[in-house]
Every structure is written in structure tokens, then in C-alpha cells.
Design goal:
This protein is an alpha+beta fold and 343 residues long. It has two domains: 83 residues, no CATH class; 236 residues, Bira Bifunctional Protein, Domain 2 (BirA Bifunctional Protein, domain 2), CATH 3.30.930. The chain is 38% helix and 20% strand. It has eleven helices and ten strands. A seven-stranded mixed beta sheet has the order 1-5-6-10-9-8-7, with helices on both faces. Strands 2-4-3 form a three-stranded antiparallel beta sheet. β7 and β8 form a beta hairpin. The protein is rod-shaped and about 125 Å long. The model has no long low-confidence stretch (mean pLDDT 93). The structure holds ligand 2U9. The site of ligand 2U9 has 21 residues, from α7, β6, β9 and β10.
Length: 343
């Protein structure tokens, strides 16, 4: 028995000298001393070799050692747990969080959405169509004659795979496609990107965005057109805005007109933006040419319609006083971040 008791003393010293510095070394200790195949258990197995008169004394030594080894284990465990707690105790929850930068809508999207929402309130629905179009839907159906300058390679991007395909030069292809469906009346607005072969500058680009509109029914008149567009600009620019129409020419409308609004910056008095005229052009419009109606299978004796078209970039530049068209497509965050507050 003396030998085993000495061995137990040696284990006590070993345990006292142990450095438990993490969960791995604690687990190593548990396996060595306290597990079912560990030292404490095997020492209890020695009981059967101890003479009967010494069993009681050995049992007491053994129990004391077991208690010592278990207490050591519990103490180390607790101290490790409290150390890992301290990792979070050091966090100051009152500090402001890391900023999550919020993106912003592109100004063209903001103005497009605003325009669409005004026309939706007037009962128009939104229709969209392809940006790669054939000659019929972009030109011929719209009464644009074969020798029209817009058809020139200088003005239009054609696709090399097929001479009949091009990048649409306006969103009017969408109206043609709606008219061809033969369901009347039609009251639609068409937003979208259009392409023109222009040299890029502060005032021109090879692509830009339009919203066009079309209303076809029996007895639609120029008066309807005027009233609708007047309501539209009042909603977009405020009740004080004035409008005027100037006669114009488009192959797809007859009569045709350009609509100006009173200059927002100088209130009509004259400034650089309105080139001292007091007026700014914002859209083109007119009554749909009877030939265009017939091209799409609509009886021009029964139905009439008006159409209008506007460049979103132009309206955005007026609204936000932006002086360079290129800012819309260079993705400069210093420009785009200025629209964060808008929805
Ligand atoms: C159909 C019939 C007629 C759409 C129209 C304009 C006048 C117009 C320009 C404004 C600035 C294009 O972006 S811009 O350069 N548009 O002046 N657009 S009438 O007329 C149509 C459309 C479809 C079937």
C-alpha cells in the first residue's frame, strides 16, 4: 500500500504543477485523470490488492485524491469560461456601428419613376419593348421614308449580322407593337433606352432615355393632348408652370408640335438656361398620323390618337440643374451620392 500512496502523492504534485491554458489542455487532463480509462479509476481498481485491514485507510486516501483531482478540474474549467466571457465584457455596445453605405437611385431612374407615376394616375399603363429592333417597327411603320436622314448609318447603329436590325432610335417601336396587337383603346407610356450615332459631348450621347406616350380611341383630340400634358408638367414642376406649343414636323404625327415650359430658373424673365427667351423646350408631340394608324391595321376614319415623346436626361438636367450629359453614364459616385436622399 505504501508504494501506491507514494504514487498518489506523485500524481498530486504533477497535478499541482500543471499549466492549463486552454480547453485543449483541460481536456487532455480530464482524459488522463478523470475519464473511465483514467488514473483515478485505475487507482480504485487497486483496492482489490490492498489487505482487508488497510482498505479503509486506502479508501480515504483515494477519495481525497479523487476529490482533489475533480476540484482542480472544476476550478480550471470555470477560470477558462470566465476568460472567454471577458472577451465580450471588453466590447462597448454604446459605440456607433460600422456604417452600412446605402445606395441611391440613379437620377434618370428617379425622374423616369416620377414621370410614370404621373401618367399612371391619369390611367396610362406602362409598356416596354426590345432595344434591338427591325426596320419596320423602328422606321417604316412610323412613316419614316426610306431616304429619311435618321436611317443613315451616320445616325443609326445597324447590326452587322442582319441589315434589317438596328438599335432602336426611339421607344416608338413599343407603341407600334402595341397597336399591332389590335386591342383598342390604347393608353400607354413607354420608358426605355434609345441609341443614336452621335459624338459624345456635354449635350449629346450615343444613348439616352425616353418616355413616349400614346392614346388612341374614338374622338381623341388635340385638346386632350394639351390638357394631359399641361397636367403632367404641373405635377412635375409645380402649379405655376406655364406652357406653350410651337408648330413642328415629325413624319409620324400630323399636326406636330413642340411644347415649351416657362423657365424654372428665371420664372420666364430670361437667363442662361432658357437662352434669354423665358421658355425651355421639354417635349415633342402631335396627333398620330393616319398613315401610322393604317400601317398597324387601325381604321383611321374611326380612331384618332395623340402621341408625345421626351428625353429623360433633358428633364433631369432641368430639374436638378445638371450641365453635362456625360455625368449620367460615367458612374462617378460623387455625382450619384448627391441623390441619396431621394426615392
Ligand atoms: C407612334 C406615333 C407617334 C412620339 C413623338 C416626339 C413627338 C418627339 C422627341 C423628344 C425628345 C424625341 O427624345 S427626343 O429626342 N420626340 O418630339 N415623339 S411625337 O410619336 C409617336 C410615337 C409612336 C405610334
Amino acid at each position: 500500500m505504501e508504494m501506491i500512496v507514494k504514487q498518489i502523492e506523485a500524481y498530486r504534485e504533477e497535478i499541482s504543477g500543471l499549466e492549463i491554458n486552454g480547453p485543449a489542455s483541460l481536456e487532455e487532463y480530464r482524459l488522463k485523470f478523470l475519464s473511465t480509462k483514467g488514473i483515478v479509476k485505475s487507482l480504485f481498481g487497486e483496492m482489490r490488492n490492498i489487505p482487508a485491514d488497510q482498505k479503509k485507510e486506502f479508501g480515504a486516501v483515494l477519495n481525497a485524491f479523487k476529490q482533489f483531482a475533480e476540484e482542480k478540474y472544476e476550478n480550471w474549467k470555470q477560470s477558462l469560461e470566465s476568460q472567454s466571457d471577458q472577451g465580450t465584457v471588453g466590447v462597448d455596445y454604446t459605440l456607433p456601428g460600422d456604417p452600412l453605405p446605402v445606395g441611391s437611385r440613379h437620377p434618370i431612374s428617379l425622374v423616369r419613376n416620377e414621370i410614370l407615376s404621373i401618367f399612371r394616375r391619369l390611367g396610362f399603363s406602362v409598356a416596354e419593348g426590345p432595344e434591338i429592333e427591325d426596320d419596320w417597327h423602328n422606321f417604316s411603320a412610323l412613316n419614316l421614308p426610306e431616304n429619311h436622314p435618321a436611317r443613315d448609318m451616320q445616325d443609326t447603329f445597324y447590326l452587322s449580322q442582319n441589315p434589317d436590325w438596328l438599335l432602336r432610335t426611339h421607344t416608338s417601336n413599343v407603341q407600334i407593337r402595341e397597336m399591332e396587337k389590335g386591342k383598342l383603346p390604347i393608353r400607354i407610356v413607354n420608358p426605355g433606352r434609345v441609341y443614336r450615332n452621335e459624338t459624345i459631348s456635354a449635350r449629346a450621347h450615343c444613348f439616352f432615355h425616353q418616355v413616349e406616350g400614346l392614346y388612341i380611341d374614338e374622338q381623341v383630340s388635340f385638346a386632350d393632348l394639351k390638357q394631359t400634358l399641361y397636367f403632367f408638367v404641373q405635377e412635375l414642376f409645380g402649379k405655376d408652370v406655364k406652357i406653350r406649343f410651337r408648330p413642328s414636323y415629325f413624319p409620324f404625327t400630323e399636326p406636330s408640335a413642340e411644347m415649351d415650359i416657362s423657365c424654372l430658373l428665371c420664372n420666364g424673365k430670361g437667363c442662361n438656361v432658357c437662352k434669354h427667351t423665358g421658355w425651355v423646350e421639354i417635349l415633342g408631340c402631335g396627333m398620330v398620323h393616319p398613315q401610322v394608324l393604317e400601317n398597324c391595321g387601325i381604321d383611321s376614319n374611326k380612331y384618332t390618337g395623340y402621341a408625345f415623346g421626351m428625353g429623360i436626361e433633358r428633364i433631369t438636367m432641368l430639374k436638378y440643374q445638371i450641365n453635362d450629359l456625360r455625368l449620367f453614364s460615367v458612374n462617378d459616385v460623387r455625382f450619384l451620392q448627391q441623390f441619396t436622399a431621394s426615392i
